[in-house]
Specification:
- The protein has about 400 residues and is mostly helical.
- Helix content is about 80%, strand content about 5%.
- The protein is built from 20 helices and 2 strands.
- The protein has a two-stranded antiparallel ribbon with strand order 1-2.
- A hairpin with a 2-residue loop joins strand 1 and strand 2.
- Helix 2 runs antiparallel to helix 3 and helix 19 runs antiparallel to helix 20.
- The longest helix has about 55 residues.
- It is rod-shaped.
- The two termini are about 80 Å apart.
Length: about 400
């Protein structure tokens, strides 16, 4: 329908133009310095129209000629952007496919093209890091000609890669240049402080991480327990420092099995036998723990009978715990209750054979002059150790396979 209307309109316009030209009998007289030119009005109008069209065409050609450099530059820029985008896509795909050499080359090309230069440099740095080309990695991250908005991305990536290289001091220096602590920066700072064994700082960071809900409750509890235990080990240079560190431990953590075992061992090493005994007793009263019960035998002072009485009270709730039975046997031996000691040690070995129980029985038999039993228990202890070695070696072989 539209084509039909256009055809009718053109036909009508042509008809009107012909009728106008036939009816128009006027002329145009041009005179210049004595020269006279006479033209029909129709021809003059036609020449005028042609002159206008030619002028417009010349103006358009001049405009195109002047715009040609800019158009060529825009065309080259578009081609560069397209090539950079293709290189960035290739780098991203190759990096996640694990082809790090190809990813690095493509990302470097994208960075030079200016397409997402900050992100491209980070991908190139990560790929170089996987290739252990640390100098190239640092060069990609040190390029300061990119967008200032990419600075945080560069810094957080550099800190993460330095930490994976175990260069926690350098990572902390980079993190120190980051003003506001985002969640990722806090996680990296936590890992850096753990590598630096700065356990006081680790404990100080945990409330911030907990407020931001970075880790689940189970992970937070494990981090707090392990950091507290490590802080106690670091403070065990002397008894005064250890006591000061133990006083700073929260009440609920003092009853934790891992923290209590660590603290008790530290106090025993520093000569604080009484403190070690109280720590073990309070923790076991809160929650039973077999390794703590085994450690209780080392908390003996001048009078072992009070510890024996306490441990026999635990036996009513844990009658078949091998660690507790072993502890009772050792405490009875310290108290010169040889018969009871042998009964407890034999009961421990019957519930769960162990190297320690066999050695204690061998020492008891040696004191009583039973040489055959000494040899038998020592042989059992040796066989137990050999069996453990075979099991561990077999486990490592299965993991290797």
């Amino acid at each position: 329908m539209r084509i039909l209307l256009w055809a009718i309109g053109l036909f009508a316009g042509a008809t009107g133009l012909v009728l106008f030209a036939r009816a128009n009998t006027g002329y145009v007289l041009l005179s210049l310095h004595g020269a006279r030119v006479e033209l029909s009005l129709n021809l003059a109008l036609l020449l005028l129209v042609l002159a206008v069209v030619a002028g417009a065409l010349l103006l358009r050609a001049a405009t195109l000629a002047f715009d040609l450099p800019a158009r060529a530059h825009a065309f080259r820029e578009q081609r560069r952007q397209e090539a950079g985008r293709a290189a960035f896509d290739e780098a991203l795909r190759a990096y996640f496919e694990g082809r790090h050499g190809r990813a690095e080359r493509a990302a470097a090309t994208a960075a030079r093209s200016g397409v997402l230069s900050g992100l491209s440099a980070v991908i190139a740095a990560r790929a170089a890091h996987e290739l252990r080309a640390f100098s190239r990695r640092d060069a990609y991250l040190a390029d300061g000609d990119g967008d200032p908005r990419d600075e945080y991305l560069r810094q957080i990536t550099q800190a993460e890669l330095l930490l994976s290289e175990r260069r926690h001091h350098d990572a902390l220096a980079v993190l120190g240049r980051i003003g506001h602590r985002h969640t990722s920066a806090l996680r990296l700072e936590l890992e850096a402080m753990r590598q630096a064994r700065n356990w006081d700082r680790v404990l100080a960071l945990l409330p911030q991480l907990e407020n931001k809900q970075v880790f689940d409750d189970l992970t937070m509890a494990h981090l707090r327990r392990s950091a507290t235990a490590e802080a106690l080990r670091e403070a065990a240079v002397d008894l005064a420092s250890l006591r000061s560190a133990w006083e700073r431990v929260a009440a609920e953590l003092r009853r934790d099995a891992l923290v209590a075992r660590t603290a008790a061992r530290c106090f025993l090493s520093a000569g604080g036998v009484g403190e070690a005994r109280r720590i073990v007793e309070e923790a076991i009263e809160s929650r039973w723990d077999s390794p703590l019960a085994a450690l209780y035998a080392e908390c003996v002072g001048e009078e072992p009978r009070s510890l024996l009485q306490k441990a026999e009270g635990w036996l009513r709730q844990q009658p078949r715990d091998p660690a507790l039975l072993l502890t009772l046997g050792r405490l009875c031996a310290r108290a010169a209750l040889w018969g009871k000691a042998r009964n407890y040690l034999e009961a421990s070995a019957a519930v769960e054979p162990s190297h320690s129980a066999q050695l204690e029985l061998a020492a008891l038999a040696a004191r009583e002059g039973r040489d055959a039993d000494v040899a038998r228990h020592r042989e059992a202890a040796l066989q137990f150790v050999l069996a453990q070695l075979r099991d561990s070696t077999g486990g490592r072989r299965r993991e290797a396979l």
